[in-house]
């Protein structure tokens, strides 16, 4: 009839440990996101590459190769094939992605052109 058991006080759960964990995860992911940005590619320094002059220089990135003015060639020969078409390394090159080429493929070709000393690249659809 009588309930002689000790009455327990109900404790409210503390939110402090959960908030600490959330902030630690937030800091971790903010720092981890910065590690992948180790190289930046600048396109058309100065905001514009100027007027297009000279012979056509259309580079097309495909899923499995590179085309220069519609002619397939290995990536290693791209810089030497562009040399006779250029008056200066600052002449505009037109780079286009097609036939399922990934963004990474386009970036690889941009890096190749940058390493070869070409400074003006226009990306088109």
Number of strands: 5
Proportion of helical residues: 25-40%
Q: Briefly note the CATH topology name of the domain at 58-124.
A: Nucleotidyltransferase, domain 5
Shape field? rod-shaped
The rounded Rg comes to: 29 Å
Question: What are the segments in which pLDDT stays under 50 over at least 5 consecutive residues?
Answer: none
How far from one another are the termini? Answer: 84 Å
Count the helices. How many? 3
Question: How would you characterize this protein structure?
Answer:
- The protein is of the alpha/beta class and 125 residues long.
- It has a domain at 58-124: Nucleotidyltransferase, domain 5.
- Helix content is 30%, strand content 17%.
- The protein has helices at residues 16-34, 78-82, 103-115; strands at residues 58-61, 66-68, 71-73, 92-97, 120-124.
- A 5-stranded mixed β-sheet has the order 3-2-1-4-5.
- The N and C termini lie far apart (84 Å).
- The mean pLDDT is 81.
- InterPro entries: ExbD.
- This is Biopolymer transporter ExbD.
- Its main location: membrane.
Any chance you could write out the topology, listing elements then pairs?
Layout: H1 16-34, E1 58-61, E2 66-68, E3 71-73, H2 78-82, E4 92-97, H3 103-115, E5 120-124
Parallel strand pairs: 1-4, 4-5
Antiparallel strand pairs: 1-2, 2-3
